[in-house]
Write a structure and sequence with these properties.
By secondary structure, the protein is of the alpha/beta class. The strands form 4 sheets. An 8-stranded mixed barrel has the order 14-15-17-18-19-20-21-22, surrounded by 4 helices. Strands 3-2-1-6-5-4 form a 6-stranded antiparallel β-sheet. It starts with 5 loop residues before the first helix and ends with a helix.
Length: about 625
């Protein structure tokens, strides 16, 4: 026989499978309808049959035992194609079924009537059928009743499907809610508990410790060393895999009752419950350091990392989880400051230091607007003539409660917070303004000013525009400005450093390399950069007259400058003998306490007034003639 049009048949089969009823166990409400159909039609056989692709499957049946038959052999395969009840009064008299095995065989079916189970979609899923072993007729009322019962079967199918869909929706919603709860309390990348869940578990540990004085716990704050370098060089994909593998190794080091969490970025925390003392916490710290020492391998690329760990114990007696996390974080930063790849245990002095640091940060942000910064000026002297050639601008902070602060007290914080950018701009502007004022007042047109540029300043894209704007606004000749840049600043920005330095030189500004010998000391790369002068760090000048080693270092640097055709300034000059050696080595400039300490604006102006005559020419420093040097050297 031929079935329905392929497209209609595909829709019908898809709908049938959406009811999820095939091959299910018997259900009473379907059996009741089957029995009622047999009773009304007075037949020994009745069934609810569902027409699948190649089979006829019986959801409910009376009068036979088979659960399914080949579709092409059944009477129901014809009934599903009808719009009304399909009746065969005598199967032997119908040429379509006279040779059917169910007619000629042991089943001996002679009568069939099937009402299509037509859904609201207009597609028949199967039939409600009655059968007999003798030919017969159904009355009009019986046929109508069979049709009504078929509609009840479809109603039960719809109810059953709706109930199942409702259950599935409930299950899906429960899973969705469970997933949502999981997402709320877990990190999406590593699957570890997140900050919210960690704080919840830490709160529980605090409550337990308050109930039982013998209950101890520890909090470990972990930060991966050099993670940013790995992320930037190998890509965020490798960075994410590294975090996932790190999380796995951390978990492998823990007990079941401990909690490992990821706070975000490359920061992890651990809650060690029910420990005996600090030794348990340090043992864990050592264990995870060892576990993380082994290399990670990502597609053949070996990656090595280390951890900085801060530890705090529950004996501090805090009641808020935030306080424990803060102290562990503070101890972690102490570990980083002491060289990384280690752990530090929190003590109160760390907290006091952190509070002072935070207060310093807050004060620093307001210092510019409150005009608390001052510029001090230290002379730079030509060693051959003894004349002052210029000044280096050095910042001081007149703190409202702590007094006058040197750069070492706050520049590091300014670098970390980014405050160095506006501070550096202010220093540059004020130093240029002050120098121009002295040049006009004393005719000191040859006097120059040296200003330090921080690494962060040097990386600013608009640096050239800022410097040009300052020079134009104060009216200073660019040749009077010298910019001091550290080796670190140049080498960390090597790709763009050469171009930026050339742009500065094109303006007429000279470039000094500051603290030479203490940073990268990349001598092979030095000739690629347009540097006009090297500043020899004071660590090499201090004790120059007493040790051959430092003398050789300075001699090597001087040979380098002469080969490159540039000059040098010796920093930290304090004795006449140092000057004598530097002169012998042909070092052109000196700077240090031998000539003058850094001076405030008024004292520096007095020095300018003393060392520039009315013709605008510099006068030699009284201590810098050859005779004075020799006299001082001999005592």
């Amino acid at each position: 026989m031929e079935f329905q049009e392929p497209e209609t048949e595909i829709k019908r089969l898809k709908l049938l499978h959406q009811y999820r009823i095939l091959d299910t166990v018997p259900e009473k409400h379907f059996d009741d309808l089957t029995q009622l159909a047999a009773y009304i039609c007075q037949t020994p056989i009745s069934a609810i049959s569902l027409t699948d692709f190649q089979r006829q499957w019986y959801k409910s049946k009376i009068g036979f035992t088979s659960t399914e038959e080949l579709r092409e052999m059944t009477f129901c395969a014809h009934a599903v194609l009808q719009s009304d009840v399909f009746v065969i009064p005598d199967t032997l008299m119908d040429e379509r079924f006279a040779n059917n095995p169910f007619v000629t065989g042991e089943a001996n079916i002679r009568f069939y009537a099937g009402a299509p189970l037509r859904t609201p979609h207009g597609l028949a899923l199967g039939t409600l059928c009655v059968l007999d072993r003798v030919p017969r007729e159904l009355s009009y009322q019986q046929i109508q009743s069979l049709s009504v019962l078929a509609e009840q079967v479809v109603t039960q199918l719809e109810l059953r499907r709706n109930v199942q869909n409702l259950k599935l929706n409930i299950v899906k919603r429960q899973k969705s809610e469970a997933q949502l709860r999981h997402n709320v309390f877990h990190d999406g990348l590593t699957g570890l508990p997140n900050r919210a869940l960690f704080m919840k578990r830490l709160s529980a540990a605090i409550a337990k410790a308050q109930r039982c004085s013998s209950s101890l716990f520890a909090v470990l704050f972990i930060d991966l060393d050099r993670f940013k370098v790995i992320n930037d060089s190998l890509g965020h994909g490798v960075g994410d895999r590294l975090l996932i593998e790190t999380a796995s190794r951390l978990k492998s080091c823990m007990r079941h009752e401990d909690v490992v969490a990821r706070l975000g970025g490359d920061e992890f925390t651990i809650l060690l419950n029910d420990i005996q003392g600090i030794r348990d916490a340090t043992d864990i710290a050592d264990r995870i350091q060892t576990a993380l020492t082994l290399p990670f391998n990502f597609s053949g690329q070996e990656v090595f990392i280390s951890l900085s760990v801060g530890i705090t114990l529950s004996t501090t007696g805090y009641q808020r989880p935030e306080d424990f996390l803060r102290d562990a974080d503070t101890a972690m930063y102490r570990a980083k400051a002491y060289g990384k790849a280690r752990y530090e245990i929190f003590d109160v002095s760390m907290h006091d230091s952190a509070v002072r640091q935070m207060q310093l940060e807050n004060d620093l942000r307001r210092a510019i607007e409150r005009q608390e910064f001052e510029i001090y000026f230290q002379p730079i002297v030509c060693l051959a003539s003894g004349k002052i050639g210029g000044f280096e601008a050095l910042i001081r902070w007149q703190h409202p409660t702590r007094g006058l602060l040197d750069p070492l007290d706050f520049i590091g914080v300014a670098e970390e917070t980014g405050a160095i950018i506006p501070i550096g701009y202010w220093i540059l502007s004020e130093a240029c303004r002050q120098l121009h004022s002295w040049q006009l007042k004393y005719g000191a047109t040859s006097l120059t000013i040296s200003v330090n540029l921080s690494t962060k300043q040097f990386s600013q894209r608009n640096l050239i525009e800022q410097i040009s704007s300052i020079l134009q606004s104060v009216g200073l000749n660019p040749c009077s400005l010298k910019l001091e840049i550290t080796e670190t600043a140049i080498m960390e920005n090597a790709a763009s450093a050469a171009e930026m330095l050339l742009q500065l030189r094109d303006l007429g500004i000279e470039i000094y390399m500051d603290d030479f010998g203490t940073g990268y000391s990349s001598l092979s790369s030095l000739h690629h950069f347009p540097v006009d002068l090297l500043k020899i760090d004071q660590s090499f000048i201090n004790g120059l007259e007493r040790g051959a080693e430092k003398s050789k270092i300075v001699q090597t640097i001087m040979t380098l400058t002469q080969n490159l055709g540039i000059n040098a300034i010796a920093e930290g000059v304090e004795t006449a003998e140092q000057i004598s050696i530097l002169r012998m080595l042909q070092c052109k400039f000196g700077q240090g306490y031998f000539f003058s300490k850094p001076l405030d604006r008024a004292a520096a102006e007095m020095l300018v007034a003393q060392h520039w005559n009315k013709a605008g020419e510099a006068i030699s420093h009284p201590n810098c003639s050859a005779q004075s040097i020799e006299k001082l050297r001999r005592g």
